[in-house]
Every structure is written in C-alpha cells, then in structure tokens.
Amino acid sequence: MKIWFGKIFGAIVGLLSGGPFGLLVGAFAGHLLDNALVRVLSGGATAAAGKGDQREVQQVFFRTTFRFMGRLAKADGRVSEQEIDAASQIMAQMGLTGAQRQSAIRFFTEGKDPATDVDADLQRLRDLLKQRHGLAQMFLEIQLSVAYADGRLSVEERRLFDRLCRQLGIGAFQFEWINSRVQAAMSGQRQQYNTRPDAPAQLRNAYAVLGVAVDASDDELKKAYRKLMSQHHPDKLVAKGLPEEMMKLAKEKTQEIQTAYDLIRKARAA
User: Do residues 138 and 250 touch, judged by C-beta distance below 8 A?
Assistant: First the structure.
C-alpha cells in the first residue's frame, strides 16, 4: 500500500514557506505522515482479515464436526441408538436450538452420505488450523467422545480416525495419548451413574484422564494438569476459532481434568 498525499502536501507547504530547503523538509515530514497512515490502514485491514479468517474457522469447524460425526456413525453400516443419542447430547451440551440445531442435523445427515467429501472438509480445516494449535486436538476429542458412545471403537471407526489424523497432521503417539484420555473420561462418566462405584477404577481413570502414570511424581502430575488446563481453556480456544457454541464442551473438558486432578490429590494426601 502506497500513499503520496503527505509527501505532496508537505512539499507544497515547505516550498511556499521555505523555498527549496523548505520543500525538502516538507517532503520528508510528509513521508513520515504517509508511513504512519499506511501502518494505521494496514493494521485495520489486517484486523478485518483476521476477523474474517476466524469466522471461516468457526464455520468450517462446526460443519466438519457434524459431517465427520455422521460419517463415524455410519462407519459400520448402520447408525446405532447410542450414536444418535451421543450426537444429540453434543448438540444439547452446545445449547443448539432452532436454525443452529437444524444446521447441525443437516451436516450430520450429509456426513452419513458416502457422496459427501469429508476428506475435503478435513483438509480445509487443517489449512485453517495451521497457526491455531489446540483446535485439532479438541476436534479429535469431540469425535472420540461420540465414537465411544457404545463403549468401544470398531475396526471401521479406527480406520476413519487414521484418516482424520493423517488429514489434520496428528501423529500416532498423540492420537493414542488423546484416545486413552478420552476413553478414561468416558469410563469415569459411566462410573458416576453406578450406584456402587469402583473407587480403584475411578482413581486409575483419573490418572488416565491426565495422561500420566500412576507412579508419576507430584511435580509431573501438576505439570500435566496445568498443561491440559491451558490447552482446554475455553477463552483461549474460542480466540483461536472454536465456535462459541462449543465453549460449553471446552468447559466440560476442563471440569473433567479438574475433577481427575482433585481425586488424585485427595488420594495421595490420605
């Protein structure tokens, strides 16, 4: 972006008031003014572009979330009641109503259709998330929580997750770490509804939710806890482009992490 107004105006004023020397001084002052205007205008344009990018991230994240969810549900040839309930629960947790809920249902239905190019959605999402670390992990956690609605991952679902990880650039080790954490969290939720919860199993799940070994030191435990809380901080994720409707899901993730950490600390202090 180039602006010449300051240079021209400064040169004219300088020439009229100080002759040739004044022309040089005025032109230089105008040059400084032009540079300042360029920074202001460029900053505004960058901010506007940034807001536009974030809106696109939110839209693509929302669409791809429910399309891939639909593809997962149909992976083994039929959509189970548990999978439908899990998708509905995600929509309820997000507080989706009216047009938003209808859009989510439409995307879910499109995802079940083999003709829908979910890989293209994932590739676009990856392009948008290159500078937004943490959102890909959140996307994977949401999908895994739905996939574990029936208590396990089928062979077909596992293959879909392999494709998802390749598209989003998630390594095998990172997937297994996230997978074990989500599986433990889902198991912990089922324990909550058990009239006679298994305390040792709850404690093992708590360690798995934090992604640490049972014999981890207090410092290692605290470090893992703080890292996960930072990664799942709702405000940080929304600032990166997580749809605001999904903030409730992020809050629930942080609550799971907090509950697991508190349970371990209580057990260690006993």
Answer: yes
- Cβ atoms of 86 and 149 within 8 Å: the answer is yes
What number of helices (H) and strands (E) belong to the chain?
A: 11, 0
CB atoms closer than 10 angstroms to residue 213 = 11
Provide the 8-state DSSP code for 213: -
CB 161 within 8 A of CB 143: yes
Query: Residue 150: helix, strand or coil by DSSP?
Result: helix
Question: How far apart are the C-alpha atoms of 82 and 169, rounded to whole Å?
Answer: 29
**CA angle in degrees (0–180, nearest 5) for 192-250-70:** 85
In angstroms, the CA 208 to CA 135 distance is 21
Give residue 20's pLDDT: 57
| Per-residue pLDDT, 52 | 47
Closest CA to 207 of 197, 196, 220: 220
CB atoms near residue 46 (< 10 Å): 10
Count, residues in the chain: 270
Give the pLDDT band of residue 47 (cuts 50, 70, 90).
Answer: very low
Tell me the pLDDT band of 258, cut-offs 50, 70 and 90.
very high
Instruction: Give pLDDT tens digits for 196-219.
Output: 556 788 888 888 889 898 999 999
Q: How far apart are CA 110 and CA 239, in angstroms?
A: 28
The SS3 call for residue 188 is: helix
Query: Which residues lie below 8 Å from residue 16, measured CB to CB, with a gap of 6+?
Result: 22
What average pLDDT score do residues 140-147 get?
88
In whole angstroms, give the CA distance from residue 54 to residue 32: 33
Distance CA 101, CA 265 (A): 40
